[in-house]
Specification:
Length: 613
């Protein structure tokens, strides 16, 4: 056994180690990699800090930047320190590096919004972080002469404006630089133990990835009909856009012909009150969680993201899910999989056919479609609201924001669905940029109103109470099924034999607000909606499974529809009824030992019976 192995074994077995430090070792806070015989490097993932303090765990962008991270979402007031205890294998002069970014740099380099520092053993390192690159990169925090054994790391926020830290490396090698490209960084994390691969498999009947309203409804429906379900969701709370993190009300109607029982479950789990951008208790996260936990057939995996699949021909054999805090991966197997991620993330990993952007009228014949296909999408909303205080409140007069004036500012005290960014950007690859721009405009506009506007007295006692850090996304990928719902189906009320849950909302499509375009060309943050009325229309079952991945279902905004048809189908109450239908279909697949397509071709009457019950 090497000297280092003996030392690590001693630490894990508790000799002379505090309970806190031992817990840190066991749950994987510290990962070691020997660089040379004379140098050591310790990788500390920020999300594994024992005490997050006021920092928020952020996991929306793992696919784009490689990991979850901690973010200081303080609405302009520095948040409490995050801290942890690490173990250094040897004494030495350590360089301390942090993977971070200057998130405001794409729009303004006059200053940096998200500044923070690192302290080691109570001493602040000299370099202010989050000030340089506009992309994720390693930034030097300073050096520290440290003894072997315990060391305390602290993340100290300086601004309250969304400083972010992905990981920290302490290295005694004066020249070592960790990889920053996603593939290299993933290999490094695996080599050092920051990501731990599966050691076995968890087998159930039905894997559901995505715990928004569609995924919840599919899970509960299938569980009540006897299936063993694994529900994977990458946030700490269920509900997706209807959770307290995003705060969008449930839209659409339920309990309509031809199957008026569809929607009962949506009513059971949905909050009693409606409205966008309201206080957290309006969205009743606990009600959704309690309903899921009450089902003994559901295994719920929160803070867990589906990041990989194993294929057997055109069938998903396994889903690889990763805990976004510890990096521990789990291999999940089941005969059936539901992608209710909204982004079609599992479907794309499995090679499912998909579309993104707007189809052209020359392809679909839809009257509302553009003449030719383009990349325009409906955007994402960073909602917010303020409250009135008894006395005047201050807000920083920021130098790093968008420049507003009396003509371009928004003289409002809350922002809901019309505050929409990213319509001209890729909603997958650019999603962190899209969310960050949403934050930027809220903070910049509010700073102008509080500090510079001639109407600032009207805002003197107004205080920002809540700004979403999870963007409410409307559109990205749409997985292709055996039927693609089009505008003509909705308008002409085309009758299909596999009619299921009704979509009831207007064809509601969003576009950049023309005035906002004039004021902020190519950087819009306000939208308008154009509506076309429809009668309630039952969506064909064939829109709920992939045409080329044989055991893959879809429910929610990533079902098989055109961009135009998505305008009505994307409502969450409608998505919940989709989930109910898919839960029933999955049950029939197990009963008949068949695939989702076979329900349409051979067992449609059985599905109709369940939908009517």
């Amino acid at each position: 056994m090497t000297r280092f192995a003996r030392w690590l074994n001693m630490r894990l077995n508790g000799d002379g180690v505090s309970a806190c430090a031992r817990m840190g070792l066991v749950i994987g806070i510290i990962f070691f990699s020997a660089v040379t015989a004379r140098a050591a490097a310790v990788l500390v993932e920020a999300e594994t800090f024992v005490d997050h303090g006021g920092w928020t765990l952020e996991q929306q962008f793992i696919d784009q930047m490689g990991s979850s991270y901690l973010m200081a979402h303080g609405l302009g007031a520095p948040v409490h320190d995050a801290s942890t205890v690490i173990q250094l294998p040897e004494a030495g002069m350590y360089r301390v590096l942090a993977r971070t970014k200057n998130w405001g740099a794409p729009w303004n380099r006059a200053d940096a919004p998200g500044k923070f520092m690192i302290a080691v053993n109570g001493k602040d390192l000299p370099q202010v972080l989050g000030t340089k690159e506009d992309l994720w990169a390693w930034q030097a925090a300073g050096t520290a002469n440290l003894p072997a054994g315990e060391a305390k790391l602290v993340l100290r926020d300086l601004t309250g404006f969304n400083g972010r830290c992905d990981a920290i490396i302490l290295t005694s090698d004066p020249t070592f630089m960790p990889p920053n490209d996603l593939k290299g960084l993933d290999r490094y994390r695996r080599d050092t133990g920051a990501i731990t691969p599966p050691t076995g498999s968890v087998k159930t009947d039905f894997i559901i990835v995505g715990g928004g309203i569609p995924g919840i409804c599919a899970a509960i429906t299938a569980a009540r009909l006897g299936l063993r379900v694994t529900l994977v969701h990458d946030r700490p709370v269920l509900g997706g856009n209807n959770s307290s993190e995003v705060r969008v009300h449930l839209g659409g109607r339920a309990n309509l012909a031809p199957y008026p029982k569809l929607g009962d479950l949506v009513r059971e789990i949905g909050p009693a009150r409606g409205g966008n951008a309201r206080p957290a208790d309006f969205y009743e996260d606990g009600r959704k969680h309690t309903a899921v936990e009450a089902e003994k057939n559901i295994t719920l995996m929160l803070n867990t993201r589906g990041l990989g699949v194993e294929m057997d021909g055109s069938r998903i054999k396994a889903v690889i899910a990763r805990d976004v805090r510890s990096g521990k991966e789990t291999r999940l197997t089941a005969p059936l999989v539901l992608d209710s991620t909204g982004d079609g993330a599992i479907g794309v990993l499995a090679g499912a056919d998909f579309r993104m952007g707007r189809e052209g009228r020359d392809e679909t014949g839809e009257p509302t479609a553009p003449e030719q296909a383009d990349a325009l999408v409906m955007g994402s909303s960073v909602q917010w609201y303020s409250v009135e205080s008894d006395s005047p409140t201050a807000f920083p007069d920021i130098a790093w924001g968008l420049v507003f004036n009396e003509e371009t500012c928004e003289r409002v005290k809350m922002g809901e669905w019309t505050w929409e960014t990213g319509m001209n950007r890729n909603p997958i690859d650019d999603f962190e940029h899209i969310r960050d721009y949403g934050l930027l405009v809220v903070f910049s506009n509010w700073s102008f109103l509080k500090n510079r506007s001639k109407h600032k007295q009207s805002y003197a006692k107004s205080r920002l109470e809540w700004v979403a850090h999870v963007a409410g996304k409307r559109e990205s990928r749409r997985l292709i099924g055996d039927h693609v719902l089009r505008e003509q189906d909705l308008i002409e009320r085309t009758v299909y034999p596999d009619a299921t849950a009704c979509t009831t909302w207007t064809i509601d499509l969003h576009y950049p607000d023309p005035k906002n375009t004039a004021d902020f060309p190519c950087n819009e943050f306000k939208s308008i909606a154009k509506h076309r009325l429809i009668y309630p229309y039952p969506i064909p079952y064939r829109c709920f499974y992939s045409k080329n991945v044989e055991n893959l279902f879809m429910a929610g905004r990533n079902i098989s529809v055109t961009h135009v048809a998505l305008g009505t189908a994307r409502l969450m109450r409608t998505g919940g009824m989709m989930g109910e239908v898919v839960g029933m279909a999955a049950t029939l697949c197990k009963r008949h030992n068949c695939q989702p397509r076979d329900i349409f071709t051979s067992h449609l009457n059985d599905l109709k019976t369940l939908m009517a019950a």
